[in-house]
Amino acid sequence: MSAQQYQIRTGTELVRVPDGTELSVLIYRPDSDDRFPCLLTYTPYRKGSGLGESFAGFAARGYVIVIYDVRGTGDSSGACESIYSDEERADGCFMVEWCARQAWCSGKVGMWGISFGAVVALQMAAAAPPSLKAVIARSGTDDPYADWTSPGGSPRNYIYEMYAPFMAARNFAPPDPEVWGEQWQEVWKERLERSAHGEHGRRVVLASASSAGQARPDPVPGVRSRGVGRLVRDSDA
User: Which of 120, 132, 163, 229 makes the best surface tag, with the fewest CB within 10 Å?
Assistant: First the structure.
C-alpha cells in the first residue's frame, strides 16, 4: 500500500463482454496518470448500495477499486437466470483481464469479497485468469451446495423463503435511467422477459438455489463445475 495519499476519481462505464451483454462498472481510482494494481469484485446486490464506498479509501492509497453489477442485475444488461451461472463466471474471467488492460492498471488484479463476493472470488481463483494475482475471501465457500443451500444434504428453508424472493424483488427492479438514457426501458424489458421464463420458455427463479446440485458446462477451459458454482480443475478431479 502506498504511503502517498491521492485524491479519488470516481466514474462509471458500460463494458461489453463477448456475447454482447453490457456490464455496468463502478470505478474508484487515484486521481493520477500512473498505473496501479486493481481490486475487483462483482455483486448481484447493486454496486451503488454503498459497497464501493467501504473500500474507496484504498483508492486514496494507490489501488483502483472496480465493482460491477452481475449481468441481469442492477444496471447491467442481460438476464440473471441462475446464481453462479457459466455466463456469470465467464464474465468474471473477462473482467479480470479487462481491468489488467486498462491504462490505469499495472496489469496486476486482485479480488476481494464477503459472502457472495467471497464465493465468486474463490471461483475466479479456481479459474485462474492470467492477471489474477491474489484473492481475499471472507465468509465464503468453494461449495455453496454443501455449505450454504443444503448443509448435510438437507435443503434450507431460508433459500426459498427469504433469499429467492429477496433476489427476485431486486432483480425485477429497473436499471438506472442515468446509466442507460432512453434505452433503460429496453434493457428492463429484456430482463423481465428472460428472467421470468428463460431463453427457452422455462420458468426460473431469479438467482435462487433451486437448481442446486446440477452440473454445468465448463466456464473456462480445463475447469468444470461441481455442485452449485464449485469449480475444480480437471487435473484435480
Answer: 163
